[in-house]
Amino acid sequence: MENGELKMIEKKENVVMNKSYAFALRIIKLCKHLITEQKEYVLSK
Asked: Which residues contact 34 (CB under 8 A, 6 or more apart)?
């Protein structure tokens, strides 16, 4: 593999990692919103 090909593979993995990280942050914000604003409780702790 050449360096260019390796960088492309790393970049694709970073896109997935960045999107999954952003999704996880959105889920955390949703959970906090539901607990504070909607008075929902988490049963699965």
From this structure: 40
